[in-house]
Amino acid sequence: QVQLVESGGGLVQPGGSLRLSCAVSGVFFSIYTMAWYCQAPGKQRELVSSITIDGTINYADSVKGRFTISRDNAKNTVYLQMNSLKPEDTAVYYCKVLGKVSETGYVSQFWGQGTQVTVSS
Fold first, then answer.
1. How many CB atoms are closer than 10 A to CB 51?
2. Is 94 exposed, middle or buried (CB count within 10 Å of its CB: 0-12, 13-18, 19+)?
3. What is the rounded distance in angstroms from the CA atom of residue 117 to the CA atom of residue 115?
């Protein structure tokens, strides 16, 4: 059974930093794209950043220059280093992966349970 477990969220003051981690457990033939999304109260879930298996990275304009995504393929883990945090970054952050659990299976998406990030003084 595939599980995505996020950690690293919390309360931080404006200008502070947090590092989110998402560990993927379970049997995978291959994990392609790993990504972070956020959802603020009353808003739709939106992409923060993604990283493909070959290292291609994408960032939302609102986080460019402040957030850094990385992945450790040996550990099936994706990270999001969040610097210079702003109150508008406050949201629940979700990890998502696209992958195949078997060589002949379909590419499927899997979501974590989310971790709360609150930026407030």
1. 20
2. buried
3. 7
Distance, in Å, from the CA atom of 86 to the CA atom of 96, rounded to the nearest integer, reads 23
How far is the CA of 110 from the CAs of 8, 22, 52, 116, in angstroms?
Answer: 19, 12, 15, 19
Task: From residue 64, give the alpha-carbon distance in Å to each of 2, 48, 68, 89.
Answer: 30, 9, 8, 12
| Beta-sheet pairing, 115-119 with 91-100 | antiparallel
What stretches of the chain adopt beta strand conformation (E)? 3-7, 10-12, 18-25, 30-39, 46-51, 57-59, 67-72, 77-82, 91-100, 108-111, 115-119
Query: Can you list the alpha helix ranges (DSSP code H) found in 37-119?
Result: none
89 vs 102: CA distance, rounded Å: 36
Q: In 3-state terms, what secondary structure has residue 56?
A: coil
Measure the CA–CA gap between 70 and 50, rounded to whole angstroms. Answer: 9
Residues of the chain under the 70 pLDDT cut: none
